[in-house]
Design goal:
Largest sheet: none
Distance between the termini: 24 Å
Order of helices and strands: HHHHHHHHHH
Number of helices: 10
Radius of gyration: 20 Å
Structural class: mainly alpha
Length: about 270
Amino acid sequence: MSAATISAPTAPAEDGRIGLRANLRHIGALARRNMLQIKQDPESMFDAVLMPIIFILLFTYVFGGSIAGKGHETEYVDYLVPGLMAMMGMNIAMAVGTGINDDFKKGVMDRFRTMPIARSSVLIAKIVVEVGRMLIATMILLAMGFAIGLTVSTSVLHLLAAVALSMTFGASLMWIFILLGLTMKTAQAVQGVAMLVLMPLQFGSSIFAPTSNMPGWLEGFTKYNPLSNLADAARHLINGGPVAHSVWMTLAWSVAITVVTAPLAVAKFRKRT
C-alpha cells in the first residue's frame, strides 16, 4: 500500500487540529501499510524470528556453565529468559530508528508530510507495528525457553504481565530511536550511535548475570539502569519474588522516556528537511 492509496484522510478542523477518531483511522491505515511492507519483504522479520533463538542458545550454553555450574546450564534459563525479554525490546527498538532514517532517504516520509494527517500518526503507526514484531520475538524467546527448561514458578497471568511490561518499556524506547533516526544523517550513523548506547546498558545490567559480584561502582550503575529494573521485574514476575519496586521503576522509566522524547520526535519530524 503506497502513501497515495491510504484512505482519504479527514480534513483538519478550522483550528488545524485533527480529531481523535480521524487520528485513529490514520494510524490504522498507516499501520496496515507498514504490515504490507513486511509481507512484501519477509526478510525484514529475520531479526525478530532468529535473534531470540540465537541469543538464548548462545548465552545459555556459553554463560550458563560459568554462572550456574557445568552441567547445570538449563538452570540458568530461568534467570536468562526474563533478562532477554528486556534485551529484545532494545534491539527491535534500534531497528525503528534505522527504518525511519531509511524512509526519509526514499522520500516516503516527505509524501506523508504533504497529507492532511497528524504528524504523530505516522510515528505511532510505526511503533504499533514494531511492538507487534517485538511480541513475536518475545513469543519465540519464551517458546525456546520452555523447550530447554524454562519454568514459571508463579502463574500464567504473571507471565503475561511480564510480557506486557516488556512491551510497554520497548515501546517507550522506540521514541528514543525514532528521534535518533530523525537526527542522524544516515542509517549507519544511527546504528553506530545506538550500539554505543546499547552495549553498556545491556552488559552493565542484571540481564545476563547477578550484579552482586560486580565492582562497587558498576553495581551502583546497575541499580539505576532501566534494563536492570525491567529484567528484575520480569524475573520476579516469572520466578517469584518482590515485584513492586522493579515494576514501578520500569513503568516510571517508560513514562518519563515517552513524555520527554515523543514530543521531541514529533517536532523533529515536522521540521526535518
